[in-house]
Design brief:
Blueprint (H helix, E strand, L loop, with lengths): L1 E7 L5 E2 L11 H4 L1 E2 L1 E3 L1 E3 L5 E3 L2 E8 L4 E8 L2 E8 L2 E6 L2 E7 L11 E5 L2 E6 L2 E10 L2 E6 L4 E2 L2 E2 L3 E2 L8 E3 L4 E7 L12 E4 L2 E10 L2 E6 L12 E4 L8 E7 L2 E7 L5 E4 L19 E4 L8 E6 L3 E5 L3 E5 L9 E6 L12 E3 L2 E5 L6 E7 L4 E6 L11 E7 L4 E6 L4 E7 L4 E7 L4 E8 L2 E8 L2 E8 L5 E15 L9 E6 L2 E7 L5 E14 L3 E4 L17 E13 L3 E3 L5 E2 L18 E8 L3 E2 L8 E4 L6 E11 L2
Parallel strand pairs: 2-3
Antiparallel strand pairs: 1-55, 4-48, 5-6, 6-55, 7-43, 8-9, 9-10, 10-11, 12-13, 13-14, 14-15, 16-17, 18-24, 19-20, 20-23, 21-22, 21-24, 22-23, 25-26, 26-27, 27-28, 29-30, 30-31, 31-32, 33-34, 34-35, 35-36, 37-38, 38-39, 39-40, 41-42, 42-43, 44-47, 45-46, 45-47, 48-54, 49-52, 49-53, 49-55, 50-51, ...
Length: 634
């Protein structure tokens, strides 16, 4: 018999894909785990039971969450549901109003903020600006372009074939415009053209080749001309796909009918897209041209303008950025997931985006060695957790990137590039998460549960999901305000102690004993399991090698409960050796230190973990490291 001691000092590789169970030669294998569910992985290497989800409000349906950072002291959460916008400040409701987006619009919303204004675009609706006047005063309006009478300085584009001409019936005033081929539709009514550089408004539709219009400034003659362009963003050709601010310009990345075009406003005049004579401060307009169609998914402002398309990643540069110096250079050929919008996020100088396959998360970063951008896959070792992301946001306080999946799970990556830490865990709840946003240090999610959709946030003081805390100076048994959990079996934390389960009826629960402070919500289970042991015996190890766990020593920090399974079912462990003690009807005291557990029995399955932590008790649990002592057959 051979006795072996191994120590896993950290979990900084996160949960690894089962495809890697044979790769014990990898550095990640030493610091990885087979299962990390419902835990937060700290950048320092330990794992802790995740925070619970505190119930904030019930929502009328599926939602999109957008952070609005007004200043360092005022951070708002904007909640968009079907034709409604709700505003929350510090987690409390502040305002609501009618919004133009229906529920089916929400996945494709794109936005950018500057000062007190948020710009929101969707390829099927006119772009809007949301302006804050006070906590309880917000307006949503269609973009206003500067104009000189009837000439609007908005984006224009030639949609029709270059050989198609227009013939006006007169040179000014009410006219009939006749096209040499069908180019018009009923949606053109109310849109604008420039014919020979003069502003024209379409007032009526006759056929695909003929419309009624008004020429506002006299043109040279009424002959047929190919010198005409259309309003770029309109009901006829769709609206903007993505938007950002870059070097004091407003940037529009693609539209419904021109997905590969970029418009940049004039410098300092954010809604003026007049290209004029091509002077340095005038607007810029160009196509992304290459050997493939580049449908723009997102435009992102960094040191250079980054453009994420369906098939490649680009940078748009110029020093200074002017119509004469602008250059678009393709960097990588990964592609970005679409058509729904998963906004790229800036983390430690790199831009993180979801690849076109929906199975990878890429780090878009300029490298000195290559003198070019690279797009490393940060999900390569945890591919099984990444499946069709629909939303993501970054929590800079805990260095956690939260990625919402189409199946309602939430994959979280602990990212600390300076220490080469890229570690994934998975969060599951009794319901489906479909949106996430980080606001002022708080992480909010929209969750669809059995009783409807709710707005919730991660909260260390509520260790249950869809949970509400309550307190009273006089202990009582009945607690109300739980209508969002009607009919559900909930877990109760009473005066800090686990009080078991109760059923919510008419929005209330009745406890077995009075309590002064409670947390009531849905339970969740966290699980931690190591990778299959990579230990060789006298016969070389592998299949057929018998392994017996003698002892496992867990280094704990501020842990009030530890349920451990060493092969015979999960059991609560006693902390008496660490100075912990239990007092009847009192909350357990969190302890820190080394807890050793002895185990019995040989293990014949080389793929099974030697131990597992499986715990639904709503009490804190943090594991910093694990040392195992095992015997293997010679």
């Amino acid at each position: 018999m051979t006795r072996v001691n191994t120590t896993q000092t950290n979990f900084t590789a996160g949960e690894l894909s089962p495809d890697l169970y044979g790769r014990s030669d990898l550095r990640a294998y030493v610091n990885g785990a087979a299962t990390l569910r419902n835990v937060f992985l700290r950048p320092t290497g330990g794992v802790s039971r995740r925070d619970g989800l505190r119930h904030i409000a019930s929502l009328p349906g599926r939602a999109r969450l957008i952070a609005f950072e007004f200043n360092t002291e005022q951070s708002y959460l904007l909640v968009f549901t079907d034709q409604r916008m709700d505003v929350y400040l510090d987690g409390a409701y502040a305002f609501h109003c009618v919004a133009p987006w229906e529920e089916w619009h929400l996945p494709q919303l794109s936005w950018a903020q500057m000062a007190d204004t948020l710009l929101v675009v969707h390829p099927e609706t006119a772009p809007r600006r949301i302006t804050r006047a006070s906590h309880t005063s917000w307006t949503i309006s269609v973009w206003d372009y500067p104009n000189d009478g009837h000439r609007y300085y908005e984006p224009y584009y030639r949609f029709a074939h270059p050989l198609i001409s227009l013939t006006p019936s007169d040179v000014v005033g009410s006219v009939t415009l006749t096209a040499s081929s069908a180019v018009f539709s009923a949606n053109h009514v109310g849109t604008r053209l420039l014919v020979r550089g003069k502003p024209v408004s379409i007032s009526g539709y006759t056929s695909g080749t003929q419309v009624s219009a008004t020429i506002h400034e006299e043109i040279e003659n009424a002959y047929a001309t190919r010198d005409w362009v259309e309003q770029a963003l309109s009901p006829a050709h769709g609206y903007a796909r993505s938007v950002t601010f870059h070097k004091n310009r407003l940037v529009i990345g693609g539209s419904r009918d021109v997905p590969h075009h970029i418009w940049m406003s004039q410098v300092g005049d954010l809604f003026n897209f007049d290209t004029g004579e091509g002077l340095d401060d005038e607007a810029i307009s160009f196509d992304l041209l290459s050997d493939q169609l580049n449908a723009i998914r997102a435009v992102f402002s960094a040191s250079e303008l980054q453009v994420f398309t369906s098939g490649a990643e680009w940078v748009v540069s110029g020093d200074p950025l002017t119509p004469a110096t602008v250059a678009a250079i393709r960097q990588t050929r990964i592609g970005t997931l679409g058509p729904h919008c998963v906004p790229p996020r800036r983390v430690d100088g790199a831009t993180l985006f979801v690849g076109a396959t929906g199975r990878d998360l890429r780090e878009y970063l300029f490298t000195d060695m290559e003198q070019a951008y690279q797009a490393a896959d940060l999900a390569l070792l945890a591919r099984h957790l990444i499946q069709d992301p629909v939303d993501m946001d970054y929590d800079p306080v805990r260095r956690l990137l939260h990625v919402v999946m189409a199946d309602g799970t939430l994959a979280t990556m602990t990212n600390y590039r300076a220490e080469r830490i890229t570690a994934w865990t998975l969060h599951e709840t009794d319901g489906e998460i479909h949106a996430v946003a980080e606001v002022g240090g708080d992480v909010f999610v929209a969750v669809e549960r059995q009783n409807g959709v709710g707005l919730e946030k991660f909260d260390a003081d509520t260790p249950l999901d869809a949970a509400l805390p309550g307190s009273d100076t006089t202990p009582r048994q009945t607690w109300s305000g739980l209508s969002h959990l009607n009919g559900r079996t909930v877990r109760v934390l009473a005066d800090g102690a686990d009080a078991g389960t109760a059923v919510v009826a008419s929005g209330s629960v009745t406890l077995d004993a009075p309590a002064s402070a409670v947390v009531i919500g849905l339970p969740f289970t966290h699980e931690i399991a190591p990778l299959p042991p990579a230990i060789s015996g006298g016969r070389g190890g592998g299949p057929g090698t018998l392994i017996r766990l003698i002892r496992a020593t867990f280094r704990l920090r501020d842990t009030a409960a530890l349920w451990l399974d060493t092969g015979d079912g999960a059991r609560a462990q006693s902390f008496q050796s660490l100075g912990g003690h239990a007092v009847f009807d009192q909350p357990p005291t969190p302890v820190s230190g080394d807890l050793s557990i002895r185990a019995l029995g040989w293990q014949r399955d080389p793929m099974a973990p030697l131990w597992r932590v499986v715990q639904d008790a709503p009490l804190p649990c943090t594991i910093l490291s694990v040392t195992t002592e095992v015997k293997v057959t010679d």
